[in-house]
Amino acid sequence: MEPFYPKYTAQILSILRSNPHNLAEEQGARITVDHTVSRFAFLYEKIRNVVDYKDEHLIRKAAISRILKRQLMLESNPDLIADRLVKELIGARYLANGILDEAIINKVSLPIKKYLALSKVKAGPEKHLNWMRGLIAVEIEEILVDASEEKALITFLYERLLPVVRVRGLDLSETELHLQVYIACYRALIKADSDMLGYKLLRAYLPEWMHPQEWLENPRPIAERLVALERRIKLRLRHPLSQKFLRIVKPWAVSLGILRDVLKEKPEEIEELLMKPEDLAIKIARKAEERYKRAKTKLRRGTVRAIIYLFLTKMLVALLVEVPLEWLWYEDINRLALAVNLLFPPALMFLVGLLIKVPGQANTQKLKDGVKKLLDEEPIVVGEIRAPKQRTGTKRFWFTITYAATFLLSFGLIYSILRAIDFTGISIVIFIFFLCIVSFFGFRLRMTAREVVVVEGRQRTWSVLADFLSLPILRAGQWLSRGISRFNVFVFIFDFLFEAPFKIFLTVLEEWFSFMREKKDELQ
Fold first, then answer.
1. How far apart are CA 133 and CA 52, in angstroms?
2. Which of 129, 137, 139, 143 is nearest to 64 (CA)?
3. Dihedral angle sign, alpha carbons of residues 302, 57, 289, 157
4. pTM attached to this predicted model
5. Are 133 and 65 in contact (CB under 8 A)?
6. Domain ranges of the chain
7. pLDDT tens, 457-468?
8. What is the distance between the alpha carbons of residues 328 and 20, in angstroms, rounded to a whole number?
């Protein structure tokens, strides 16, 4: 096997051997949280993350956003907010204890100052402030957690793919093409969400954002520009071809991620492996198998979390509604319907998790080929992006009618079956509600399990039929999940009735332990 192209191996070597900024190396006092307090805080976060389901790689950012929102309601001093935020993150074990220098508080307070200054202008509605707070959470996470290696790998992937990506059927500007490839690389390699990508675009569209000293005294012009930028950024992220860009970038991103994992396993052997393609291919195959096993474990864990989440936040509330309403309207309770609605959601979720399969040898071979092509001198060959066909008004009308008919067919079939076994109207509504929510969660879990899959599956007749019948259910589940997540009773209880006093108690407890240590030191 021929050696890799020296230019690309040198780039990878430089990225993986670079010394990221280590916040622990800064001189100064370290931020510490009492271990007893940390245990309480960690346990609380574990429980709360069950009732507010988030993908694992987004949990820390979500915690920053949630803590930030609460602290902004209780306090107006950015330095104090930053201090409490960092200590809460350390206590909950999102950050290491006793590692960060106290100087990091000043860095974290700067984005908070920007938010406070801009929010006072009131240039946009509450929804705009929520969007802005999400970007601030991303900025704070970047301050606290070094991501220079990920950024460098994204740049490498972007530069390798950009020259060969082609769009057919749509006159896409060069700037838009570059932007969509860049966004797809971020989404594929680190699974960036809208807040992360929005922050990247904000920095590109508004360079002044990184120089707040120039506008903090007069934030109105920046605040007004931000309102317009929000719409522009969201349009870029919702581009009609964004999923097609992601689809052609993903195989290369997975291959690059596997390469990074292999090379970082033994840093002292990086240069040697990059000079021996045969040995590297063997290690890539082994690492791929490890990733498959990890994906299976993650799938099982995600299934359990989803079942608990569904039970606590959806099923329990719905059942508390079903029993009294049926008794009120029908003066009877259908025990069969109640049992089905009680057992069906977790059983379906378990079955979905059980049926999801991990990749095989064909996928592993494609990963090895992907790594080789990324490091070879020859240009990469990617699939062509085709714009959706422009349909005439008549054709679009009939397709819309047919699509609507699939909803009637799917839900009509379910309704008929349930009526045949004497389900009441209330029981049917709750059953369909559960079915849609669980199906959508199962679909998301399947997507999680397919993070390392780069082989396209074959379309079979039964899968086409299944898609035809399940698509309306999945679409309804997506809509319900987004809508109901805003009215999560348990999240409301945690955030507004429990979290604030509990965290105040932990803060007082931390200060008490500190006071006791001081008194103990006086005895020596």
1. 19
2. 137
3. positive
4. 0.79
5. yes
6. 276-485
7. 665 555 556 666
8. 64
